């Protein structure tokens, strides 16, 4: 890109402004991630508080990448004021965010003044490939801080909320909703002893990866009398759910993973599955340790329920699947829970459940 603007020699060139603009967006995103981590809050929580779609919040936290990932409006002073308000920020952290937002607004106005019709396209030509090294791969999102790492599970909380290590919060806020973001913007190899490809009927009928996962619970994903929890975005382009199934004589648990990227590289993650009975966590009998799982683009992989299966007891018990999905090189992350199966000798009650 050779143009430097409208010819004004005294002011900075378009390229210089675009570079500063990208840097301001990177700094703003990092500051928001740090603020989320400091307050023990997560991206999904912020999205709910702002009444903004989670993929859009994820986009805000991508720094300069948001300039070319979407044509949506970029975060500025108004967005920042709302974030500061919801997080209850004061002092230097609030002042820094406000200053960065003002700089983003000012730089955008200058870029638009130089090239009113295509400033964003021209900025992208400069910014792509010029950003800082990517942040470490994120861990799954959560609504509350402090969770057991994959190798050290802890009992579920009273309300069944997942927990996460505070030191992972900043990474979690960065790109944990990457998979949901792919769906927002666009509209197997597996480890033999831990995971298997989903049946062809689950993926072959859906040609576009962005359509593979929808919000809400899932029913009968593992077969009759099974439920999967809400989709959890990240790491990378993976969206995952924790599932449970009740058979006549056994209760089984699994994690369903979908790579929503369309044509991107295979996503390699680390997965651990456990189960909770009466809110006490237990390792899977046949797969007690975390395992690597590869999820090809546009494909769904489900860990083998047979490797996390226990006998159905003749007395009432409440069961939940417990799952962790973290980047391949991570050793800590957030767990998620499946819907609870209240298993009685003569009936099964799922909570929550689909109508």
Helix/strand layout:
Blueprint: H1 14-38, H2 43-50, H3 54-60, H4 66-69, H5 77-87, H6 91-114, H7 119-127, H8 169-175, H9 178-186, E1 195-197, H10 200-203, E2 218-219, E3 226-228, E4 232-233, E5 238-246, E6 250-259, E7 267-277, E8 280-283, E9 291-295, E10 300-303, E11 309-311, E12 317-327, E13 335-337, E14 340-343, E15 348-351
Antiparallel strand pairs: 1-10, 2-3, 3-5, 4-5, 5-6, 6-10, 6-11, 7-8, 7-9, 7-12, 12-13, 12-14, 14-15
Choose one word for the global shape: elongated
Count of helical segments? 10
Q: Unreliable segments (pLDDT under 50, ≥5 consecutive)?
A: 1-8, 131-211
- Total strand segments: 15
- Mind describing the biggest β-sheet? 8 strands, antiparallel
What is the first-to-last residue Cα distance? 55 Å
Strand content: 15-25%
| Helix/sheet category | alpha+beta
Instruction: State the helical fraction.
Output: 25-40%
Helix and strand sequence: HHHHHHHHHEHEEEEEEEEEEEEEE
Question: Keywords for this structure?
Answer:
single chain, 355 residues, alpha+beta, 8-stranded antiparallel sheet, 10 helices, 15 strands
Protein architecture, described:
With 355 residues, the chain is α+β, with helices and mostly antiparallel strands. The protein is 30% helix and 22% strand. It has ten helices and 15 strands. The protein has helices at 14-38, 43-50, 54-60, 66-69, 77-87, 91-114, 119-127, 169-175, 178-186, 200-203, and strands spanning 195-197, 218-219, 226-228, 232-233, 238-246, 250-259, 267-277, 280-283, 291-295, 300-303, 309-311, 317-327, 335-337, 340-343, 348-351. Strands 1, 2, 3, 4, 5, 6, 10 and 11 form an eight-stranded antiparallel beta sheet that branches. Strands 7, 8, 9, 12, 13, 14 and 15 form a seven-stranded antiparallel beta sheet that branches. The chain is elongated and about 80 Å long. It starts with 13 loop residues before the first helix and ends with a strand.
């Amino acid at each position: 890109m050779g143009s430097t603007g409208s010819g004004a020699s005294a002011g900075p060139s378009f390229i210089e402004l675009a570079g500063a603009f990208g840097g301001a967006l990177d700094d703003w995103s990092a500051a928001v991630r740090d603020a989320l981590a400091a307050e023990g809050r997560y991206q999904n929580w912020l999205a709910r508080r702002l009444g903004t779609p989670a993929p859009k919040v994820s986009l805000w936290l991508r720094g300069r990448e948001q300039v070319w990932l979407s044509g949506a409006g970029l975060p500025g002073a108004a967005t920042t004021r709302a974030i500061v308000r919801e997080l209850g920020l004061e002092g230097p952290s609030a002042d820094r965010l406000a200053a960065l937002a003002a700089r983003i607004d000012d730089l955008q106005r200058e870029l638009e003044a130089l090239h009113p019709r295509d400033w964003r396209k021209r900025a992208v030509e400069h910014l792509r490939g010029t950003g800082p090294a990517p942040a470490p791969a994120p861990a799954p999102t959560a609504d509350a801080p402090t969770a057991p790492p994959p190798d050290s599970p802890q009992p579920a909380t009273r309300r069944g909320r997942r927990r996460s290590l505070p030191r992972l919060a900043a990474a979690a806020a960065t790109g944990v909703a990457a998979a949901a973001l792919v769906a927002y913007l666009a509209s197997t190899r597996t480890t033999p002893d831990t995971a298997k490809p989903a049946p062809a009927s689950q993926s072959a009928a859906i040609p576009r990866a962005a359509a593979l996962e929808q919000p809400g619970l899932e029913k009968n994903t593992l077969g009759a009398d099974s439920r999967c929890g809400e989709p959890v975005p990240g790491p990378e382009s993976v969206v995952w759910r924790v599932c449970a199934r009740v058979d006549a004589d056994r209760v089984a648990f699994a994690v369903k993973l979908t790579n929503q990227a369309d044509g991107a590289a295979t996503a390699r993650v680390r997965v651990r599955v456990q189960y909770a009975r009466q809110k006490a966590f237990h390792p899977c009998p046949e797969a007690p340790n975390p395992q690597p799982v590869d999820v090809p683009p546009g494909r769904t992989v489900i860990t083998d329920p047979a490797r996390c299966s226990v006998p159905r007891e003749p007395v009432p018990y409440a069961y939940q699947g417990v799952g962790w999905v973290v980047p391949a090189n991570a050793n800590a992350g957030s767990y998620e829970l499946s819907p609870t199966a209240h298993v009685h000798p003569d009936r099964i009650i799922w909570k929550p459940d689909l109508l």
